[in-house]
Amino acid sequence: MPTGIPPTPPVPTSTSERTPPSRRSVLSWEAGCFVAIGVVSTAGQALLYWLLRGWWPPAAANLVSLLVLTVLNTEANRRLTFRHTAAPPLRAHLGAGALFLLGYLLTSGAVLGFRRAVPGASPAAETAVLAAASVAVTVVRFAVLRLAVFRRPARRRT
User: Fold this and answer.
1) Between 61 and which of 11, 52, 67, 107 could a Cys-Cys bridge form, CB atoms 3.0 to 4.6 Å apart?
2) Is 30 exposed, middle or buried (0-12, 13-18, 19+ CB in 10 A)?
3) b/e string for 90-115 if b means 16 or more Cβ within 10 A?
């Protein structure tokens, strides 16, 4: 007896029957993971910078803290955020290395510019400036990592 309600399609039972995720859902996943990893990385870099600042000048503390956290951040993003790509570790870290240089120049410039503008600023204030500059660098990093370093192979049109 017809009820006027169309039958419900069967639920896929295996991975091969499922449709691939849409570009929008992949981008949402990538952006969400990247932000989460970025927040942890920025906090880690700020903490390491703040600790190193007790012994080292700003540029050296920034260099070491940024280098350590860039390696950890890149690996976390390779394994979690961009896990669907087949980018080998060497390619990922070399690509991130170029971004490291840009990030170092921008964050160091921000901290050194702040110190020049506010000569008596505390290391905590410098750390806040460093974190803010890191957020700006992160936006650029995401775009470059997604579009160049961890790009998906082009799909064949049939």
Assistant:
1) 52
2) buried
3) eebbebbeebbeebbeebbebbbebb
